[in-house]
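Narrative summary of target 7.
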Amino acid sequence: MSTERHNDHAAAPADESAQPGGLSRRDFMKAAGGATAAMLAARRLPGAVPEAAAATGNEICRMDAVTLAGHIRAKRLSPVEVVNAMLDRMDKLEPVLHAFCTPTPDLARETAERLEDDIMKGRRVGPLAGVPVGIKDLVLTKGIRTTSGSIIYKDFVPDEDDVVVERLKGAGAVILGKTNVPELGYSGASYNMIFPATRNPWNIERTSGGSSAGSGAAVASGMGPFAIGSDGGGSIRIPAAFCGLYGLKASMGRVPLYPWESIEHIGPLSRTVADAALMMSVIAGPDARDRHTLPEPNFNWMDTLQGSIKGLRVAYTPDWGYAQVDPEVRAVAGKAARVFERNLGCVVEEANPGWEDPFGHFFTLVLLETDLKGMRRLIEQYGSQMMPHLVEALKGRIPDEAFTDAIMARKAVANKSWRFFHKYDLLLTPTTAVAAFPLGIQGPETIEGKKAGPFQWLPFTFPFNMTGQPAATVPAGFTSDGLPVGLQIVGRHLDDPAVLRASAAYETAAPWKDRWPPLLAKMGL
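Modeled conformation, tokenized:
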């Protein structure tokens, strides 16, 4: 296996002679405008002023994906300068945050240079041409190490791409690297035993959430405008909530899963709702490799952001009627829910579907979809180097009836949900029961002053992996110590447009994208 080394040298300038059928590089940079051309000049010419380059690079790194894609198409920015700005930022932030477990700078520069050449020569490029993206380390990437955060796969290099990676590449996205995950994704925390723990940009002593841990930290700190996450119980929505981002788990079947079948969903973490819709327009749609994928939708992902949600019937529950929820989280999420009534014209009332806590059955479903025989064999070889909570869960013996009980419980949750959503268009909840907790633990020991189990802080997300309904998290506000809090928006079966429209309406009423972690200002970013 050959690994790529992150170096500090800019890509060599391409030949500036005229290109057949297109612009010369000199003309391209002229068209790109003085400020961005100055950045490249500062990077490449002796005696340049570093601060000028850094300021321009910071502007690029703070742009959302829709804006970046537009500037690149219009030749106001080049893919090379965008990627170089991102890699410079990674050089500064990665020693602190550890968002990327396998950066791919050489591949990113190579891809950017090829895309720039295509643009200069007038060739057709995809809708994400030159836009950087991080890929969660559970998602297969051909030729790029994919460890899943485990000693078992620490040297594994896939020979094929996941469907979503294949589609992102086809759309012209530039992969910055693989983002860190807890071991095999079996955790909502942000650490494993083979890489440094991923830290939350809002407080580097706190977790960034999981299992899309590195994706959340990367996007929250401007190391790419969006990233791929996966969500088998909240693993997009949890880190998005902890890191002050938008996260979308679309309806089950919207985005193909390959090479496995599960209650997992793959989707975006982003700084804006529009960026998530843009990514969905690329990665969603049927594929023969996933027999459960849905047909092409009868809507356009970007068009779902338009329109009013006035008059929608919206339920809000702060706790399902049984969950322990941190008082500050409860207050912040409740205030955000009132925006739907006060600012957006919805009819909001407190209500919940009335199920008993199904977490035990949910975790049994997770084990049902696991290769227990194969994993137990691997534990015999690697168990001492694996996360103890994972080893314990996989080695435990489960009665046959526990599996059938879990399947019946899933049906019961789905039935209660559709009956509930017959009355309501949307459901709002806190995304998590707590804000980001300290590194190195699976969860807080107490919530609301009462003892809590290690996974008791995530009661809100996993039920909608059981039902397959679309669910998103939006930034709701902050705790008194500056930690982000998320509000979950859940839609009816297959009603992704309502979730995105509600998300966009809330974003307009309570904008968040220009609020960045204080760490960045301290580092001159």
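The mean pLDDT is 91.
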